[in-house]
């Protein structure tokens, strides 16, 4: 059992090391999770970029961007120059499956929305992806809490990149809560 865990750990690290596709937030490619904070009603711009490596998944030409948590996404433009590229917000389903069906079968029970992205140029083997591939996906801060963005393989068997965006209250909210606490304490 211990050997199996070691093998899975090594394979997981290898797939992360050979990511090929990364999430960019507000122009920063693969920023540390602790750096990404949004206040209520703010918006972050999400892009998908290629790091120039050969994809670790044979189906890299069609990744999922899965949004979990109290946030919503909209927009998105595929900038990859392939002839068959598309991006679809899988909010209400694709006509054969609903979003709830996708969530139950995907292993992402907290998923609120999912983008299906095709980066296809007509070749049998996808080339190494370089630069910005998808531009201007807008993440709207809907409520307090963390939003997790997962860029997954089409078969959901692996992950290219994950980013966590922290939605925090504005400083004035903290100040008002503190003042309210002082007034309550003073009344006693």
- CATH superfamily label: Immunoglobulins
What is the CATH C level class, in words?
Mainly Beta
Q: Estimate the mean pLDDT confidence.
A: 74
| First-to-last CA distance | 60 Å
Multimerization status? single chain
- Give the low-confidence spans: 1-18
Structural class by secondary-structure content: alpha+beta
Shape: elongated
CATH topology: Immunoglobulin-like
Would you report the number of β strands?
11
Spatial extent as radius of gyration: 19 Å
CATH architecture: Sandwich
The sequence of SSEs as H and E is HEEEEEEEHEEEEH
Largest beta sheet, briefly? 6 strands, mixed
- State which percent range the strand residues make up: 35-45%
Helix content: 10-25%
Number of helices: 3
**Strand order of the main beta sheet, please?**
3-11-10-5-8-7
Q: How many domains, in number, for the residues?
A: 1
């Amino acid at each position: 059992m211990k050997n199996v865990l070691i093998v899975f750990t090594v394979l997981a690290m290898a797939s992360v090391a050979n990511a090929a596709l990364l999430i960019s937030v507000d122009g920063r490619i693969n920023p540390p999770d602790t750096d990404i904070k949004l206040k209520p009603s703010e918006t972050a711009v999400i892009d998908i970029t290629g790091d120039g490596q050969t994809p670790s998944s044979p189906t890299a030409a069609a990744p999922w961007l899965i949004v979990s948590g109290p946030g919503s996404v909209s927009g998105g433009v595929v900038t990859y120059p392939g002839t068959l590229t598309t991006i679809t917000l899988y909010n209400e389903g694709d006509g054969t499956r609903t979003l709830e069906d996708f969530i139950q079968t995907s292993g992402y029970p907290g998923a609120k929305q999912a983008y299906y992205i095709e980066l296809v140029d007509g070749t049998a083997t996808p080339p190494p992806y370089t630069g910005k591939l998808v531009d201007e996906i807008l993440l709207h801060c809907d409520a307090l809490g963390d939003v997790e963005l997962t860029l997954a393989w089409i078969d959901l068997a692996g992950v290219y990149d994950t980013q966590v965006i922290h939605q925090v209250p504005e400083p004035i909210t903290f100040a008002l809560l503190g003042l309210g606490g002082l007034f309550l304490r003073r009344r006693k």
